[in-house]
Amino acid sequence: MALKTVRTACVLQDNALDIRVSDQIEQLDELIKQESGSETFFDRTFITEGMETLFKEGIARLAGRSSSGVFRPKQAMGGGKTHLLVGFGLLARNPKLRKKIIPHVSHIESFGNARV
């Protein structure tokens, strides 16, 4: 069996090519509210090693188990920083979502809903 190409293996979302510069400036709190803690965000997200690290460290901080309070994503433009921060915001706000998406991460039950 031949390997699939990216073109045959991936399906674009309906609005994937409808990009406007004005849409590129995000209000993170608005994006998090729009997602409403929904699992939909994570249905279309592959959790990378970098995301996993932020989730673990951020959850530990919110649970009072870490003194690390500054996290600086270092990706270049288009590197997924907004997506990363929205994902963390959703998990911070929603204990049930944490249990489903990152059940293996320590301290997920050590705090309730974080105010984002």
Total of helices: 6
User: Any idea what the shape is?
Assistant: globular
Fraction of residues in helix? 40-55%
What share of residues are in beta strands? under 5%
Counting structural domains, the number is: 1
Order of helices and strands: HHHHHH
Class derived from helix and strand content: mainly alpha
Cα(first) to Cα(last) distance is 47 Å
Strand count, sense and closure of the main sheet?
A: none
- β-strand number: 0
The Rg value, from CA coordinates, equals 16 Å
User: What is the average of the pLDDT values?
Assistant: 81
The low-pLDDT segments are none
How does this model look, in words?
The protein has 116 residues and is an all-alpha fold. It has one domain. The protein contains six helices and no strands. It has helices at 6-9, 28-35, 40-43, 49-62, 81-93, 95-101. Helix 4 packs parallel to helix 5 and helix 5 packs across helix 6. The longest helix has 14 residues, at 49-62. It is globular, with a radius of gyration of 16 Å. The mean pLDDT is 81.
Layout: helices, strands, pairs:
Layout: H1 6-9, H2 28-35, H3 40-43, H4 49-62, H5 81-93, H6 95-101
